[in-house]
């Protein structure tokens, strides 16, 4: 299993005369199969860290390794391929392509990945069943509740067995019951399918799901601890 | 592929009204283009056919140099046997031998210089519309008879009518004095002032005798049914006469150089107008697709974050444009075709046609040309320019930064 290593990641933003250290020498190892929560106050750098690991944003310094491969210096195209095949994303909201049904949303990414039409169909139906959306495969995002939309996003993120799923406040737009259900799902996927999750959140209940909890403040990791949950 | 197609199609209908408005602009210009171009081609065909059918035919065999300098001496020997030979080479075409000379014709009251054409009475009606335009009396019958058919204006100028006698005076091919007395058997009314004023036809053998031509003539006229077949017929004729250096074949463009020029001048002014129309449509497509890309910035940001490359998104935008343009093309061509096909049966008349009709001896109605080419040419160019107009909006996708894009509303 490939582990992911982040070494002294730095990312600065210039805001007028002030330099904001969104990431200030952040080092972090992500074990395959773990479920990690990233917490911290607003502006502490959680999103910046996820974006950096996912290659959506360039770092100012530092290294990111996926197993033996250093990925922080990849060009745009290879980085896109890395994301396509090895990283899943779940954002806070508006994850889905509005003109595609739940199943088509899942299939779209697989199609770009080059999965054959027949496999796409079988896999997308199976994964939607897995996330509890059996019978809703042909609904458009607008016909699904917020929680159901997030489940589609999760299904799409994990369908091709990525090395890592990055979720940036996946429950922020959900009521607490729905949020709990989504987290139950993520933990299930983590436990039974060994999907690796890195989840940024403000939500204390979400943090309760993680065996490992990382706290950030001002672009730094201030705590990185294992916790006994449940 | 099918998924992308579905996605593109549904994206189009996210803004029904906007898509329809853009498609309507395409439909409107496509209908207009189909109508105008088929009308234009129709009138060119008519111009060419009517001008050529009136007298000159599509192809002529002449003595080299005769076309530029039509002298009596620049004649071709054994003109009738040559016509017979060509008839077997081109069984589908109509072929007739002619001679031509200038002569003074005199009635009791007046004398006028005109062109006398010697024609084969049996074959001439198939290569020229003049015999059919004889409104009084009849056309020539007997190849040796001392008969003449003249135009309406000439008859008026000479103050003669059918049955009157005219005297011909001219010089023969050998330089001798040529003279004859002929009876007016028919008066034609072609509508073309030139022909009606200064042309008269007599039987070919009578012509050869009167002008001391022996078996010579000046041209063998070839008329085909379809203008498209001219090049093939021309090649066959040229092949047939290739070992005869005193013969040359001329096609209609050499026989009537003004015709093609008139068409080309008309075409370039028309293309300018069409170009403007097409550019307007292209800008409306550019505007629509630019809006449609900008308002989806966030969505495209998310898709890019998933690892989908800009090229895929750009091709999606092009596909959307292609679908919209196809919609405009199909509906536009369908309506345009119906209009053109209807007018193709009943004809189309517009004000000001009379002048052109008179100049080129045309009927006063145009029948639009309904061919695949005339239907698809304009809409095809609109389609291409629509795709071109979508290039700029799709290129913007290559500059998309997912993080920034996702922050957009
Ligand atoms: N594009 C940018 N330009 C300028 N500053 C930025 C930019 N992106 C992030 N920042 C700054 O970097 C810091 C970290 O931002 P980040 O979005 O990572 O915080 P966060 O922990 O995700 O916060 P939240 O919980 O509100 O989502 C903040 O101070 C933010 O203002
Ligand atoms: Mg954030």
Structural summary, described in words:
The complex is a heterodimer of chains A (230) and B (409). With 230 residues, chain A is an alpha/beta fold. Chain A has one domain (4-226): P-loop containing nucleotide triphosphate hydrolases (Rossmann fold), CATH 3.40.50.300. Chain A contains 7 helices and 10 strands. Chain A has helices at residues 46-53, 76-86, 102-113, 117-130, 146-158, 176-193, 204-207, and strands at 4-15, 18-30, 35-39, 61-66, 69-70, 87-90, 164-168, 197-200, 212-217, 220-226. In chain A, strands 6-7-8-3-9-10 form a 6-stranded mixed beta sheet, with helices on both faces. In chain A, strand 7 (164-168), helix 6 (176-193) and strand 8 form a beta-alpha-beta unit. In chain B, strand 2 and strand 3 form a beta hairpin. Chain B has 2 domains: 2-52 and 259-407, no CATH class; 57-255, no CATH class. Chain B is built from 16 helices and 10 strands. Chain B has a 6-stranded mixed β-barrel. By secondary structure, chain B is an alpha+beta fold. Chain B is elongated, with a radius of gyration of 31 Å. In chain B, helix 2 packs across helix 12 (310-346) and helix 2 runs antiparallel to helix 14 (372-389). The chains are: A alpha/beta (230), B alpha+beta (409). Chains A and B meet through helix 2 and helix 3 of A and helix 1, helix 11 and helix 16 of B. The site of magnesium ion has 3 residues of chain A, from helix 1. Magnesium ion binds next to helix 1 of chain A.
Give the helix/strand class of chain B. alpha+beta
Instruction: Let me know the average pLDDT of chain A.
Output: 89
From the N-terminal CA to the C-terminal CA of chain A, the straight-line distance is 26 Å
Q: What sort of overall outline of chain A do the alpha carbons produce when their principal axes are compared?
A: globular
Q: What's the CATH topology label of chain A?
A: Rossmann fold
In angstroms, what is the radius of gyration of chain B?
A: 31 Å
Average of per-residue pLDDT values of chain B: 90
Our count of helices of chain A gives 7
Give the largest chain-chain interface (CB within 8 Å). A-B, 27 and 21 residues
Quantity of strands of chain B, as a count: 10
How does the major sheet of chain A shape up? 6 strands, mixed
The CATH class of chain A is identified as Alpha Beta
Shape of chain B: elongated
Model regions low in confidence, pLDDT < 50 over at least 5 residues of chain A: none
Global Rg of chain A = 17 Å
What is the element string of chain A, with H for helices and E for strands? EEEHEEHEHHHEHEHEE
Strand order of the largest sheet of chain B: 2-3-8-5-7-6
Ligands present: adenosine-5'-triphosphate, magnesium ion
- Alpha carbon gap, first and last residue of chain B: 29 Å
């Amino acid at each position: 299993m490939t582990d992911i290593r982040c070494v002294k990641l730095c990312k600065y933003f210039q805001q007028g005369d002030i330099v904001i250290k969104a990431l200030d020498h952040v080092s972090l190892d992500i074990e395959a199969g773990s479920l990690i929560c990233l917490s911290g106050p607003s502006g502490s750098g959680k999103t910046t860290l996820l974006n950096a690991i996912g290659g959506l944003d360039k770092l100012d310094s530092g290294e990111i390794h996926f197993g033996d491969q250093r990925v922080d210096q990849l060009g745009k195209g290879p980085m896109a391929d890395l994301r396509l095949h090895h990283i899943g994303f779940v954002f806070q909201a508006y994850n889905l392509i509005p003109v595609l049904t739940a199943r088509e949303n899942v299939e779209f990414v697989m199609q770009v990945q080059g999965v054959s039409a027949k496999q796409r169909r079988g896999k997308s139906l199976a994964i939607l069943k897995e996330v509890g959306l059996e019978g809703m495969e042909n609904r458009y995002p607008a016909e699904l509740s917020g929680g159901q939309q997030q489940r589609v996003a999760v299904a799409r993120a994990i369908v091709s067995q990525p090395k890592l799923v990055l979720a940036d406040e996946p429950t922020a737009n959900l009521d607490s019951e729905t949020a709990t259900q989504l987290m139950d799902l993520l933990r299930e996927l983590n436990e039974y399918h060994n999907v690796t999750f890195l989840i940024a959140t403000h939500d204390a209940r979400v943090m309760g799901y993680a065996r490992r909890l990382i706290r950030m403040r001002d672009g730094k990791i201030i705590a990185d601890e294992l916790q006994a949950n449940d | 592929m099918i998924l992308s197609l579905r996605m593109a199609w549904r994206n189009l209908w996210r803004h029904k009204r906007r898509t329809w408005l853009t498609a309507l602009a395409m439909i409107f210009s496509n209908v207009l283009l189909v109508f105008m171009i088929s009308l234009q081609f129709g009138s060119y065909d008519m111009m060419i056919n009517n001008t050529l059918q009136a007298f000159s035919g599509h192809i002529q065999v002449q003595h080299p140099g005769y076309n530029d300098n039509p002298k009596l001496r620049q004649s071709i020997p054994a003109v009738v046997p040559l016509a017979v030979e060509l008839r077997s080479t081109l069984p589908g075409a109509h072929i007739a031998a002619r001679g031509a000379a200038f002569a003074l014709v005199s009635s009791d009251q007046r004398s006028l210089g005109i062109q006398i054409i010697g024609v084969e009475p049996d074959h001439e009606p198939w290569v020229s519309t003049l015999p059919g335009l004889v409104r009084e009396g009849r056309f020539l019958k007997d190849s040796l008879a001392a008969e003449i058919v003249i135009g309406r204006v000439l008859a008026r100028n000479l103050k003669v009518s059918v049955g009157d006698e005219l005297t011909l005076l001219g010089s023969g091919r050998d330089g001798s004095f040529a003279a004859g007395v002929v009876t007016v058997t028919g008066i034609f009314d072609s509508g073309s002032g030139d022909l009606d004023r200064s042309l008269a036809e007599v039987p070919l053998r009578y012509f050869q005798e009167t002008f001391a031509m022996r078996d010579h003539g000046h041209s063998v006229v070839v008329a085909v049914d379809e203008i498209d077949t001219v090049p093939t017929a021309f090649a066959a004729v040229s092949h047939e006469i290739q070992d005869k250096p005193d013969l040359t074949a001329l096609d209609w463009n050499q026989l009537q150089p003004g015709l093609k020029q008139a068409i080309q001048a008309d075409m370039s002014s028309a293309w300018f107008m069409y170009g403007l129309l097409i550019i307007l449509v292209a800008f409306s497509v550019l505007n629509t697709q630019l809006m449609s890309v900008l308002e989806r910035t966030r969505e495209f940001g998310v898709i890019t974050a998933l690892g989908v490359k800009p090229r895929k998104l750009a091709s999606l935008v092009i596909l959307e444009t292609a679908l919209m343009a196809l919609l405009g093309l199909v509906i536009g061509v369908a309506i345009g075709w119906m209009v053109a096909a209807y007018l193709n049966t009943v004809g189309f008349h517009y004000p000001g046609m009379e002048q052109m009709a008179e100049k080129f001896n045309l009927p006063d109605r145009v029948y639009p040309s309904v061919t695949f080419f005339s239907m698809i040419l304009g809409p095809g160019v609109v389609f291409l320019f629509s795709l071109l107009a979508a290039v700029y909006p799709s290129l913007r996708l290559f500059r998309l930064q997912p993080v920034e894009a996702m922050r957009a509303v």
